[in-house]
Amino acid sequence: MPRYTYHCPMRWAxxxxxxxxxxxxxxxxxxxxxxxxxxxxAGEYGVDSLGQGVVIVRHEIDYLRPIRxxxxxxxxxxxxxxxxxxxxxxxYEVYDGTTAEAPLAARARSRxxxxxxxxxxxxxxxxxxxxxxxxxxxPVAVA
Length: 143
Known about the structure:
It contains 2 helices and 6 strands. The longest helix is centred in the N-terminal third of the chain and has 20 residues, at about 25-45. A hairpin with a 4-residue loop joins β5 and β6 (about 120). The chain has helices spanning about 25-45, 125-135; strands at about 5-10, 55-65, 75-80, 90-95, 105-115, 120.
């Protein structure tokens, strides 16, 4: 299971005056996919600590084609790479629809770092976190 798939709903307010999904909204879409994987699913696997503190160090987005608003979700495929002691990348492909034929609309990457919210400082990945993140690595992916 190297990639995680999230179906992301669009909202009417996501579009700009030209009828396209606004570029800033993509960050919210990526966040929804990340939260679903690292908070919800990780919690179901017994790894609650990712939901208690992960910060984003960097975002990169390549916009490949515009997305027009419609009442149908987008498909976001998410995987991880460059897993280190205290950080990892969340990589994404955003597809304009949920079918296998849906065109690729964007590629993105977020550098994530575990963070101790109480102490106010970065921390290392715990063994269970590393195991969870590594099960979503895709060695053939190019992001």
